[in-house]
Amino acid sequence: MNEPHLNALKCSKCGKKLLFNGAFGAQSEVEEGEIVCERGHIWSINDGIPSLVHPPINEKDAKWIAEYDEMADNYDELVKQYDEWLGVDMMKERENFSHFVPNEGPVNIIDVSIGTGANFIALQNQFKNQMSRFNLHGMDLSTGMLKVSKAKFIENKLSVSLTHGSVYNIPYQTSFFDIVVHSGGLNTFSDIPGALNEMLRITHSGGTIIVVDEGLSPRKRETEEGKEIMKANTLFAARPPLKHIPVGAKDVEVTYVMNETFYQIVFKK
Ligand SMILES: C[S@@+](CC[C@H](N)C(=O)[O-])C[C@H]1O[C@@H](n2cnc3c(N)ncnc32)[C@H](O)[C@@H]1O
Ligand SMILES: [Zn+2]
Asked: What domains sit in the chain, N to C, each tagged with a CATH number?
């Protein structure tokens, strides 16, 4: 991790700014070490990824994270099975996130629960040689997923600052990001309002939050095909959690993407 990454973060215990703990000199990238806040809370950096998980996760979330750690290496293959089953090209659909990205100037973007990093690869497919104007961050609670996304970004020569953290207490500065993307985790989170509140907090005034997760459109859930999908995987019966959209969110819009099998909620700060 480097200094711009450090400056975007905050202490997960007290919210104060962080500093590298120790003499790193002119070294620009720290692979192993510690960071410390103004009040002395210490966090580790492992394999270039700072870890700022606090408070400890509950049993329900821990169970999911154990599963994600376990499936991380095969996750992309597993998700590909959705393509044929749902009649979509997920990677292509992820490119639609680029519609929310300003066409010029520097942009701070975070993928919350980045998983194996597919959204940023899709962004790269769209913006190609413009990627240097994006300051990209990714956070996840699964170290297995972070390891896979890190390797993928190195392979694709994409610079992304990765952080080990939880969506219920995102270790980033308030109002830092212009774009916050989250795909695929919300339905199973134990605290949906808490997660959405945190996504809004880290967004800059006027910035955009895009949340996508399994959930059939009202039309599709009435079709035979829709009923089959919901029977095979109950996650697809989820409805967009509109009652949990934080107070203070503006211009809330719900649409259905991926052949009407995922809801997409977009709102502004
Ligand atoms: C279905 S995967 C989606 C990954 C990726 N966003 C995508 O679209 O392919 C859900 C992700 O949420 C992460 N996750 C689960 N609980 C979390 C939490 N409390 N905080 C942050 N990430 C979490 C998992 O580790 C996993 O990477
Ligand atoms: Zn602190």
From this structure: 1-52 (no CATH), 55-268 (3.40.50.150)
